[in-house]
Structure formats: C-alpha cells, structure tokens
From TrEMBL:
Gene Ontology molecular function: any one: cysteine-type endopeptidase inhibitor activity
InterPro entries from the UniProt entry: Cystatin_dom, Cystatin_sf
Range of residues in the leader sequence: 1-18
Xref: Gene3D superfamilies: 3.10.450.10
Domain of life: Eukaryota
Keyword line: Protease inhibitor, Signal, Thiol protease inhibitor
Source organism per UniProt: Astrephomene gubernaculifera
Protein name in UniProt: Cystatin domain-containing protein
C-alpha cells in the first residue's frame, strides 16, 4: 500500500502596505510665516480647545460667542484640525465639533493667541486671548 502524501500548499499572504505619502506636507520650518498644522493631541492645542469651551460657556469671548449658547452650554466632541502661526506668541486656529445641552451639533472655528510667557500658576488660560470665533449649527440629516 502506498501512502500518498499530500503537500499542503501554504499560501503566504503578503499584505501590501500602501506607502503613499500625503501630498504637499513638508515638515514645518520655523519662521515659515504661514500657518502650519499642529497635531490635535498637542498639549497646547488641547488647552486652547478647553479655553474656547470655557470661554463660550461663560460668554467671555468679548461678545464674539454669545449666540453659540442659544441651545445651552457646549461641550467639546472633537478637534477636527489645528494650525499654528508664529505671531507675538503663537496664533492657534482650531476647527472643532461641539455639542450643546440640546444635543445639537455646533461647529466651531476659533483663533486664539497663546503667549506662553503669560502662563501663571500652572494654568494656561491666563496666556490665551480670543482673536476670532465663528460657529454654525449644522443641520442634522
Ligand atoms: C499625533 O500625536 C500622536 C501622539 O503623539 C501620534 O500617535 C499621532 O500619530 C500623531 N498624529 C499625526 C498626524 O502626526
Ligand atoms: C454653563 O457653564 C457655565 C460654566 O461652566 C456655568 O457657570 C453655567 O451654570 C452653565 N449653564 C448651564 C445652563 O448649565
Ligand atoms: C498666582 O498665585 C499667586 C499666589 O497664590 C497669586 O498671588 C497671583 O495673583 C496668581 N497669579 C495669577 C495671574 O493668577
């Protein structure tokens, strides 16, 4: 009796990694002049977002954000993007998604000047100044 041996072919699955590099995103050069993207996990970006939420909820953005509260206080859902520009300090521009107490979405764009030398008592808020804020209430689909 002949034992037949079956060769088991092992299919080696090679995963083809997509190594496409995102177009036109050279490393940020200092003093480049224009806005450069900042990682949204950056500590200052996070602090700016918190500052915007706190300022909006206490209506302390120089009258620029009173309408944002028409559906109640807002909470941050996520930061969509952030850039920074060197100024007398650093100018941060954040696009954020928030939600208010009526569970309505609020899209917020804020420009905040951060002057690190004004950080006091472990809080960055003292170093932040509202420059611009705009918000929209996107229609739910
Ligand atoms: C942002 O920072 C986080 C944590 O350091 C890192 O995991 C992530 O890859 C970074 N994202 C980008 C787009 O650089
Ligand atoms: C909104 O938030 C502010 C600041 O946290 C708080 O003082 C105020 O009571 C809140 N208003 C409402 C309606 O929850
Ligand atoms: C920081 O804390 C000190 C001592 O508690 C206080 O005298 C000072 O006014 C605080 N500065 C700011 C900017 O709040």
């Amino acid at each position: 009796m002949r034992a037949s041996f079956f060769l088991v072919a092992i299919a080696v699955v090679t995963s083809v990694a997509a190594t496409t590099t995102p177009p036109s995103s050279p490393p940020a050069t200092p003093n480049a002049g224009g806005p450069t993207p900042v990682n949204i996990t950056d500590a200052t970006v996070q602090a700016v977002a918190k500052f915007v939420v706190a300022s909006a909820n206490t209506n302390q953005c120089g009258g620029k954000c009173s309408g944002i509260l028409k559906g109640g206080n807002v909470t941050l859902v996520k930061i969509n993007s952030a850039t920074q520009t060197l100024a007398a300090g650093k100018m941060y521009k954040l696009c954020m998604q928030m939600v208010n107490t009526q569970a309505k979405k609020v899209s917020v764009k804020a420009t905040v000047l951060y002057r690190p030398w004004l950080v006091a008592n472990g809080t960055m808020d003292a170093a932040m100044k509202f420059v611009k804020v705009s918000f929209t209430f996107p229609k739910a689909r």
